[in-house]
Protein 1
Amino acid sequence: MKVEKEIEKIKEKLHNSIDVTGRIVKKNDVLVGFVYLKSITDNLIFSQAIFEPVSKWKGEFSFETLCQIVEANDVAEIEQNEVIEKVLKGSVVVFVSNSNKILAIDIQKYNMRTPTEPPTSPVIMGPREGFTEDMKTNMTLLRRRFYSSQLVFEQTEVGSTTKTQVILAYLDGIVDMKIVKQIKKKLQSIKIDGVVDSYYLLSLLSNRPNSLFKQIGNTEKPDIVAAKMLEGRVAVIVDNSPIVLTIPFVFLEDLQNSNDYYTNYIYSGFLRVIRLIGLLIAIIGPGSYIALQLFHYNILPIKYLITIADATQQVPFTPFIEILFISLLFQILYEVSLRLPSYLGLATSIVGALILGDTGVKAGLISPPSVIVVAIAKIALYTIPEQSAQINVLQFVFLIIGASLGLLGLIGGMIYFLAYANSIENYGAPYLAPFSPFILGDNKDGIIKVPLSDMEKRPKSFKTKNKDRNDG
Amino acid sequence: MVRDKNLNVWQASILLFILLFANKILVLPSLLYEGANVEAFFIPVLLFVLEMGLIFLYYKIKTKFPSQSFAEILRARFGKIIAKIVFAFFMLFFFSKAVLLYNVTYVFFKDLIYKEADSFMFLLCFLPIINHLAFSGLRVMGRTAQLFFPVVVIITLFCIVVGIFDINSNPLFFETTASAWFLTVIKHTASFGDAIFLFVFMDKIDIKKGQWKILFSLSGVAMVLVVAVIVVFIFSYTYTAFMHPYAIFEIMAYVKEYGGLGRIDIISMIVIVIFTYFHLAIYLKIFMSSFGVLFGRISDIYGVLSFNFLFVLIVWLLISNIESAVFFGERIATYLSIFSFIIIPFVNLVLLTFKSNERRRE
């Protein structure tokens, strides 16, 4: 094998990128060539465990010698067509001139943050570690929770250009293998140039990608993923993403919170009821307020009616325009505060909430009840933060329905969206299970939660191999 | 797809539960009182007994032909023509009920809330939703109804309990003649007979052995609740029923305000709206299904388009006031009730004499 030629070939294939490094060592008449990407390999390990033993070797050198003297763990003989892939994934590829065999030594290393509490899921009680962008760390975080032979990791690749590594994690003997097969099939059918984050797969793996509703679970917390895997779900870990997806997904999962499992079950049930009320207020609150003002004022108690009439009589806009204006103002402030640096975010809040709101009311452009209604509805959006985007859209839809069609429209709208949600099934799991279809056993961890000791069965909302939690 | 899948016994029972309220909790009680005074409360009891008989016939036929559709059974035993005639009646019967129901609900809301709204707004409220529900399929409809089921049961019970505490009149019994009573029964038979919807979707309902009690129990509960609403209304408004014709709403509208809660009549409106949406959606689904039997396996879209076109046309021609609704209900629809209480039971009794050509499925 002509070592120089091989190294040049690889450099050419990688467009002579500056981080492609090629080195040659001459041992008697034998040339030993090393190719690697210095941007993603551990230079210390390369020099101490690979380069030094080779350069210090006295005697006849062959491919077999190389295999013996290299002091690295992840060593494999590879084919010619795998060379580029291995180099790109952080291996050192070694050629020996008196042999046609090629050796790949995995010494991938790059700087990664350590597992910290995820900003999207802060906890009061329970583990504070979160997934990171490093797939191996994420696998470790899961492996640490299952000292069991049942935990299986399967690897695949998605994206013609990025060749992103995707890991499927599941518990053998618990998960229904048909679901695993379905996910694999879906992953293989994905035609895309790149997957830069797991959120790409969120829609690509959904059965109805055009739907407003989220159909795949996502979390940054390993304890949540572990709990879901124990229920028979499959976790999808995507390289370079701290978000791990879980499949199948039902709406109820977002109503649940990891804190629910670390506090008293009665309190957890109470909190879930509050979340559900929050959800209802967020979706139909502003729409109902307008419907009451425009169509059903005669059913309001007289005292409330007088208060609202007093507050709104000076407002020059119609109730719909008024609420829409306040909602849009809130939305703009929200978008600005997300993108601005934190020190400016505070100033924006003061300007938005205090100055604009207060001055708007004093100027008579908006009424205090409308500000209160929008504020409550917008705060209530975040009782289920995972679904806040969808709820926000629905809030605007119901605002328009309430203003144009009143109570009839609001109830009709609810029926429409619930029917739509009911028509969604993900990997065999009805979206609104266990409420519709009503599954009694699954309601033990529904709106009302029973103690953990009473949850002896795995969910029936989707198929699992083993329904009994006390039986492996 | 979810839309092509079958209903389980709970979902079917809940749809039947909801359907049994159709046309009975708004204007009907005051019309019954007008014809039969206080003794009117016994009319729904009698007609519900007959309706229970229809459900029992369904049980017998379904047990005998567990996997066949009603159309297939009719075709095999009576021929294509008879099957088509029966399903044409199904279409006509439920379409009339849809028009009648819409008429009554429209007048109710127009009278009380949407005084300035035109009929187009109501169509805009109802048609997209019922089309969506019917198009999504029976299972989606059943699942969605399952979500609203506790709401309608709790509200209806609440209305009944509140109404019972508000009864303060002393009704006079035995002032109605037997002929007047029977005439009222005949006039309003069309408001009953919804249980025949079970026959239309016979093969789409999965009922295992031992699950029949769910269907019978929920139907029984629905019937008791409807009778209770009618009784409470009649006993509360013995002399003013003609002034307050909207039963479940009136029960709530004139009760005392409940502390800090204020007026609570809105909850009766909520239940009326929920019922109406589901009733119309089920009627449309029956229309679509019957349309398929009549015109072969053509796309559902033609059934939906036909229903929408005819519905808008009839509503445009007919809907104007409570009088036209009453006229339609008492005169035109009455003749169609022969279908639900005579023809269908007769056909089924004949079918029971035939031998089943399929093995029993447990």
Note: Chain A touches chain B at residues 295-296, 298-301, 304, 405-409, 411-413, 415-416, 418-420, 422-425, 430, 432, 435-438 (CB under 8 Å).
Protein 2
Amino acid sequence: MEKIKKLILSIVPDAVAEEAQYPTFTVDASKIRSVAEKLKEKGFDYLICLTGMDYGDSLGCIYHISSSTDKTSVIVLKTSTSDRQNPAIPSVHDIWASANLYEREVYDFFGITFIDHPDMRRLFLRQDWNGYPFRKDYDANPELNPVPMENQTIAEMENMPSITLKSDGTVIKKENALFEKGDYVVNIGPQHPATHGVLHLRVSLDGEIIKKVDPNFGYIHRGIEKMCESMTYPQMLHLTDRLDYLSGTMNRHAMCLCVEKAMGLEVPQRAQYVRCIFDELTRIASHLLGWGCMCMDMGSITAFIYGMRDREKIMDIFEETGGGRLMVNYSVIGGLAEDVHPNFVNRVKEFIPYMRKMIKEYHILFTGNPIAKGRMKDIGFLSKETAVSLGVTGPSGRASGFACDVRKIEPYAAYDKVQFEEVIREKGGTFDRYIIRLDEIEQSLRIIEQLIDKLPDDGFRAKVPAIIKLPAGEYYQRVENARGDFGVYIKSDGGKNPYRVKFRSPCMTLISALDPLCQKEKIADLIMIGASLDYVIPCADR
Amino acid sequence: MEVKNIKIKNMKTEDFNDNEYLEKYVEELKKGGVNVAVGVLDDLINWGRSNSVWPLTFATSCCGIEFMCVGAARTDFARFGWEVTRNSPRQADVVFVAGTIVHKMAPVLKRLYDQMAEPKYVLAVGSCAISGGPFKDSYHVVRGVNEVIPVDVYVPGCPPRPDAMLYGMMQMQRKMKLENFFKLPNKPTIPDTGKSEGENK
């Protein structure tokens, strides 16, 4: 880390270095690009997340950056601008491709324009939205933004404003066109059975070959991050479940870990073990649904019914112990809501051999099927470089050879006590993304098998104060959910409400990978490539 | 006065011990007096209609997963003749609003509803669709889908269990069976604008 510090200080002598959870450097907005370029050269090629921030007197950005080779090193860059009327920060979208959407998100929420970014449309809200909702001085009067009854116009969806700064300081505003003139554009969604939610894709075609995919977000943007700012920490937990509902337990786990870390709370071992088992069961349930839906998108309804049938077994286990099926609401700050049900251990033990048997059946049913093989063969390749640059993590990232399993990189809960294999494939094709999910189910079963017999007996919850206040500071916690690297960022000012909460959504980066994946493929394969990425839209939209 | 015998398999009329207002509907309908032959024909058509309902696949968030569970093996809604989920609103009879409706989605939902053919029904599934649910304080969430389209049945829960959804669907079947099919709709009254028809266009 000393090397990085020296490097940054050599470029920006007045950079402020802090030793927080991760090494943090505050640099001037005009220098952010040169620092970013140098860091990329030094191997920091994975932008984990980009958070907008309203400091009150200034607006700024926080970059969490990591590396695909030295995965444990994370550094944080901060920059800010004091101009609240026309805030502008240089764009880094050409250094890290994932910044493309992140910067649009920051523009949408805070109104910070990114210089040289070619596409400064709003990401989630409609183009005619008044105000920037995440600013602290936002006027939330519902009369300013009533429920619209008319759809957006094509022009609103297609005109991409951008700002360029000349060397002498003059600002040039431009309007770029999204598609070329005469392009044949097909709308897919927002109400479409195979977009796995309310994603709106605008696809330009040449014959039936895809030229460009433009995802439109925001049809399920619920403003969870903003709502968290007016909630106490235990209240926020319920919203994390509803982000990516298929890995709700893991998201909740991330939030609990983040708050516990900030409080310096020691969680009983039993709670940590049970949380891990629940995480893995949720992962299996999620992969089963992902597998079933992908097969259904290829026309195999039987596979979907099989997947849902076995998923119900997990739902039963959840229901017995936690009381809920899809939303278990089981982890709380300090441990678990209740101790596990007396039947829990036995039912999980019964489930493991059953699931192993069923995976074999899935392979017989679908993996070896010549039609399925033919459809998945040789399409939708994602190279490792693109995956890292776009921040594609989770099973989809690992299918491209990007070893990004947070359970291995920053082990949390009981993951440092178990043996399991991080499944990695090299080619990054659609078939790899398909098969990797079934392989991960086996690894999850292995983890559960190691933990289920060793549940310690030291209580299920630590003593937690009635009103939880976090010491002022910034906290970041990463967790591997069923779709990738899920992160929770909390900035606290010492009160019982957070100052800012940001969720690093793995699904948003997965959707941004659709464009490079689908280019030169046929439109009929778009749905299946999308299904192989297995994104969940409410997680991307938040 | 009892609700006329509702022919739903495995569920007696007494088991629906709530929603008494439906009985009042029947009373009102019977006041007008229905021709016996037409009444029987009504029953026949409504029996057919309520057992071959085609839902629109429309799910915005979490409740959609539970809707998929309703369609899957354990709580199979094919038992009620509902299994043909349609992807086009033109072919659908009922829309399950499963999930939060936000500002950007509201006009889309409105259009989908408008595209459906009459008679059409709406189920608001889950607390988000009923009132905004846990997200009602958000700047971008519609507080209840009834702000956008009229709702027939509300199914509470976050998300509702598949059984709860089935119960909601059976309540709606009941409503469908009350439809007086041969009653001519009231003539729409055209407001007098003082212009002739041609000018109105």
Note: The two ends of chain A are 34 Å apart (CA to CA).
